[in-house]
Amino acid sequence: MANVKVVLDTRREKGDGTYPIYLRLIHDRKSRNIMLGYDVSEKLWNERTHEVRNSYPNSTRVNLHIQKKLTAAMRVIVDHEEKLNVLSIDELKNLILSFDIKTSTHRKEVSLLKYGKKVVERYKKANKIGSAAMYKNSLAAVKRFKKDKDVLLADVNYKFLVEYEADLLSRKIKTNSIGGYLRHLRAILNMAIDEGLLQQEHYPFRKFRIKKEKSVKRAIPKEEILKIINAKFEEDSDLWHCRNYFAFMFNMCGMNFADLARLKMEDIQDGRVIYRRIKTGKLYNIKLTKEAQNIIDHYTKDRDLKQEAYIFPIIPLDVIGDAEKEWERVKDKRKHFNNDLKAIGKVCKINTNLTSYVIRHSWASIAKFAGIAPAVIGESLGHSDLATTEAYLAEFEHEILDQANEVITS
Predict the structure, then answer these.
(1) pTM of the predicted model, to two decimals?
(2) How many Cα neighbours within 13 Å face the side chain of 278?
(3) Are 307 and 264 in contact (CB under 8 A)?
(4) Using one digit for the tens of pLDDT, what is the confidence trace for 338-354?
(5) Is the distance from CB of 361 to CB of 217 less than 8 angstroms?
(6) Using CA atoms, how far apart are residues 366 and 229, in angstroms rounded to an integer?
(7) In whole angstroms, what separates CA 228 from the centre of its chain?
């Protein structure tokens, strides 16, 4: 016969001296804990009545909630009394967790891939196509791991995560890419919990830690930046456009390529570029340098552009207005941009593997070497706090010291 009772788990003391309150389910000589969401010190717990004492904040409401959970668990046990001999303790626990007190019914189990598909569609509807694509890729990785079989949200447990991570590693996927897949999976579970489709008890990321590998920031010195900007190419050639985009992005504090592609005439106001970064939504307000203004003038002259028109000829006219097609085209153009940058790197005899990210990293590195305060650099880069900026800049430290030593010793 299965049994359930309320317990204060004094084996798991928290930092503030409190202990969690659980429902302890006992079945087939095994036990499982069901979280109730409350923590209390021993002096505020009545061991005889299994309730919080009156001095505990909102004690009446808390005790009522605990009693409802206990009553619901006991009802599930009674309702399944005839099947208890074939139910495992984990199956019985899941039945208790899925029981809806308000409707006295069991919530329908929701699968990960089906719910994940809804998340993807939600992001598409919000025109967050890049985010939708990342969630879609993460779900595809899960589907590949499960050999095209779906899995219930509640079955994504610690063991699942360990085996999923091992599968990704076996496919030679890099640590930070695996971290991206896992963070999107974690976000999906958090959304499901917020929507009441998954119980907090099932959340597996309390114990599982997502690994992160320190990435190497590729920055080039100002001398090499100038080599690229001053390089001569045939007008209107791919490398000519690439150099122009590179110069503009650098002059705009390391602007992202996706933002460059979607920069509109209306974003140019009184000699400034005012736009929101697509990735973060952060508002940027940057004064146009003389070089940046010259580049804009070139791309807008002899063109009768409306205020909502894109400045740079990156997104074809026939896909403008279709967010998904625009995103795909920008992704493709960025790939070509990076290839063209590599070609320019060879022409300028630059050994660093040039990509669009080098522009942002180089701007930060040069700014730090020039003695600009990290807080100012962070604001320009769009970092949310100083700690993020300092961690970002720390990776340039060895290069800056090398440059300083070269200046001193030469």
Answers:
(1) 0.66
(2) 19
(3) yes
(4) 999 999 999 999 998 99
(5) yes
(6) 15
(7) 33
